[in-house]
Amino acid sequence: MFDFMANPTRFMRIADWLFRPLLLVTAVTMAYGLYLGLFASPPDYQQGETVRIIYIHVPSAWLALFGYVGLGLCGLFYIVWRHPLADIAARAIAPVGAMFAFLTLVTGALWGKPMWGAWWVWDARLTSMLILFFFYLGVIALANGFDRPERGSRPAALLALVGLVNVPIVKFSVDWWHTLHQPASILRRGGPAIDASMLTPLILMLIACHGYFALVVILRMRALIAARRIANIELKRLGNDGGI
Amino acid sequence: MMGNLFEMGQFGGFIWASYAIAALALGWMFIASWAHARKLAKQLKNETGGSGGNGESAD
Fold it and tell me: What is the pLDDT of residue B59?
């Protein structure tokens, strides 16, 4: 499986084939999810209209975590197996995951102010999510902080692996500590605690955000593969001209 | 009717700000990634004379 996916040309052929159906699914689920979330679903009996922020906040948080697991796995594949696509995938995933972590923090603050009366509290869930965002920034800085990009791949992969420790802390922080943040209401024993009228737009937005994530990662991987091929061609040309 | 939609029980500012920031961030990242991939694909095509450099290693 690893060998099959190790060829960038083969991988990109599969990704290109998936792109249009994925774009269609993402656009349809996002449009319908936004319609249900903003206009058709009822206000919550406790949160009132602010519950509508949850339809963008929860998918952002899921994608921030999901993206970091992907980043950590890419780091593992790069360090252990030197998988040629792992470094490219990690570089493609990191900014997208960082953006979702940022959106989680911002939309959380916009929900927290009317509900808790504060933009920010040093709650275990909020703080661990902020740390996750810093891990993303650290990986991006390390990957791009060297004069030759490939020199940053290994330290970035190591930091991505170290940061994986924070993922279960974010997920289970609401169970391990007394927090202001509410406990899990979808992935929990006994099934989701949300009414179907609110669960439907939430699931649609989750599907849409996962599709969006995959689309942008494919686009960014395509660009990174092309950039490396261009750099290789220029290096060969310089070598032929006696430049190096 | 439209007033109610934007006010959303006095919380419209928080709700619409959340969606506006998310839309800007998601839209900007998608368009920037798409434009960058397209630009580099064209550049690669010019460099390789149309083959796209297929078969070469990415690293």
Answer: 38
CB atoms within 10 A of CB A211: 20
* Chain B residues inside the 8 Å CB shell of A215: 30
**CB of B21 within 8 Å of any CB in chain A?**
yes
| Strand extents, DSSP E, chain B | none
Global pTM reads 0.90
HSE-up of A158 (CA within 13 Å, CB side)? 5
Count how many pairs of residues, chain A against chain B, have C-beta atoms within 8 Å.
Answer: 112
> A173: distance to nearest CA of chain B, Å?
24
Angle between helix A166-176 and helix A54-81 axes, rounded to 10 deg: 140
Of A90, A86, A83, A120, the residue nearest A105 (C-alpha): A120
Cα distance between the two ends of chain A: 38
Is the model's pLDDT at B2 over the cut of 80?
A: no
- Delineate the domains of chain A, giving CATH numbers in brackets: 2-184+195-240 (1.20.120)
- Give the H or E element holding residue A178: none
A24 vs A184 pLDDT, higher one: A24
Residue of A nearest to B54 (CA): A9
Q: By the 8 A CB rule, do A79 and A157 touch?
A: yes
Cβ of B24: how many Cβ atoms within 10 Å? 10
- Residue A114 pLDDT more than 70? yes
**DSSP-assigned letter for residue A83:** -
Residues A139-161: tens digit of each pLDDT: 999 999 988 878 899 999 999 99
Asked if A108 and A57 count as a contact pair (C-beta separation under 8 A), the reply is yes
